[in-house]
Amino acid sequence: MKQWCQRCQGFRCICQLATQADSALQWQILQHPTEAKHAKNTGRLLATSLGVRPVIGEDFSDHSALQSLVHDGTPQALLFVQHPLVNNPIVDNTTHALNSLQRIWVIDATWRKALKMLLNSSLLQQLPILTVNSTTKWSVRSAPSEQHLATIEAAAAACQLLGEPETGATLTRNFHNWQEELSRFRPD
């Protein structure tokens, strides 16, 4: 019988792939329930790398602890792609605006489900959007475009943008190592 790993929160332990990534930022990972069960989700790798626990759900509008975080006065943003249906303000990519951010919210879900989570959650609609300009290196799952990044890729790009290049590099290495591990189990 497989043992549950308390650190990485999975039956298939990924701890050896998740080098600790030290970050001065506060990370809040919101994970869709189906993504939490998906073998190829990178949110678990991100959470393990950063030493945080994701909150699992679809609509966080009535989640009192998360409501408190949104309204505690901490400069924060939701890491998300620009989309015509999303009306959240966009964080100005000036140095001052970026340097003031202290908490980053991340949705871990398929791209379609992530958009649905944002549109259906009044809590998430209160957060400004932080966008990153990067292209995916994701070889295991399909994406709508090169700008649709895996969860850990988006977080790594955000770290680069927010002045934490070492953290971003560690997350990128962890992602690369994780993809190599997955490729060992795929037929050529």
UniProtKB/TrEMBL annotation:
It holds the Pfam family DTW. Residues 1-187 form the DTW domain. The keyword Transferase applies. The keyword Membrane does not apply. Its EC number is 2.5.1.25. Transmembrane segments: none annotated. Keywords: S-adenosyl-L-methionine, Transferase, tRNA processing. It is an enzyme of class 2 (transferase). InterPro entries: DTW, DTWD2/TAPT. GO terms for molecular function: tRNA-uridine aminocarboxypropyltransferase activity. GO terms for biological process: tRNA processing. It comes from the Bacteria. Belongs to the TDD superfamily. DTWD2 family. This is tRNA-uridine aminocarboxypropyltransferase.
